[in-house]
């Protein structure tokens, strides 16, 4: 019987999502949304979270106003979110295994990129205290601010843009996407890329079925399974 590793194809480039994969920000988003919804007697649950993970900023703003029938405009919601984000996001922390994997890939000269749906402003709030780690990336694409990213995840736009901006412009099949969300996994697959999913424990397991590989934490990722240099 063939090894499961035989199902994985060798890659040369790695693309990482940020929220919930590199940083513990999904829990921070939940706090922000529920702080806003609580006065209206409503709650943002993990079912809502699964539906919206990977959304661009404008998408989540509209979702909150429409889904919860809030008495405010999208612009008012946007302003409220920005205030809450500025108070909350600077507390973001790296998740287990992130620094080890990024430093390992960088040491072995594997091209690595960030492909996040966050805006530049949101990215800066989340990472200003973690720049030593985020400076390891060869390039960064912030989907909510980048004019070339026309559509948010699960559409493949952001991963196409990232691949094109690598100096050697690799084929999508040579890129490995790391994601935590169903929308992100779908975006990677739609771009013709293999996807490693690191789902939150709260995410229903049936929403992980589409990923090429599912692991509990980046600490458990074995690079050699995709033809990348092995940890020593």
Q: What is the CATH top level name of the largest domain?
A: Alpha Beta
SSE string, helices as H and strands as E? EHHHHHEHHEHEHEE
Number of domains: 2
Find the CATH superfamily of the largest domain. HAD superfamily/HAD-like
The value of Rg in angstroms is 17 Å
CATH architecture of the largest domain: 3-Layer(aba) Sandwich
Q: Main beta sheet: strand number and arrangement? A: 6 strands, parallel
Number of strands: 6
Helix content: 25-40%
**In terms of structural class, how would the helical and strand content be classed?**
alpha/beta
Detail the poorly predicted runs. none
Shape: globular
CATH T-level fold name of the largest domain: Rossmann fold
Spatial order of the strands in the main sheet? 3-2-1-4-5-6
Mean pLDDT over all positions: 94
Strand portion, in percent?
5-15%
**Helix run count:** 9
Quaternary state, please? single chain
């Amino acid at each position: 019987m063939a090894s499961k590793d035989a199902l994985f194809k060798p890659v040369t480039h790695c693309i990482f999502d940020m929220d919930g994969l590199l940083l513990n920000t999904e829990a921070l988003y939940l706090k922000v949304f529920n702080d806003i919804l609580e006065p209206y007697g409503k709650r943002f649950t993990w079912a809502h979270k699964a539906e919206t993970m990977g959304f661009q900023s404008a998408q989540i703003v509209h979702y909150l106003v429409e889904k919860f029938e809030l008495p405010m405009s999208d612009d008012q919601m946007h302003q409220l979110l920005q205030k809450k984000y500025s108070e909350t996001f600077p507390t973001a922390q790296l998740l287990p295994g992130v620094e080890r994997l990024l430093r390992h890939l960088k040491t072995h000269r594997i091209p690595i990129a960030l492909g996040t749906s966050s805006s530049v402003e949101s990215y800066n709030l989340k990472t200003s205290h973690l720049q030593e780690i985020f400076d390891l990336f060869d390039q960064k694409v912030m989907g909510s601010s980048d004019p070339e990213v026309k559509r948010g995840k699960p559409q493949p736009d952001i991963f196409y843009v990232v691949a094109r901006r690598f100096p050697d412009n690799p084929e999508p099949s040579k890129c490995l996407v790391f994601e935590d969300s169903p929308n992100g996994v779908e975006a990677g697959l739609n771009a013709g890329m293999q996807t490693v999913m690191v789902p939150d424990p709260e995410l229903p397991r049936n929403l992980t079925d589409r990923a090429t590989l599912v692991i509990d934490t980046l600490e458990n990722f074995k690079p050699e399974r995709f033809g990348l240099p092995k940890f020593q």
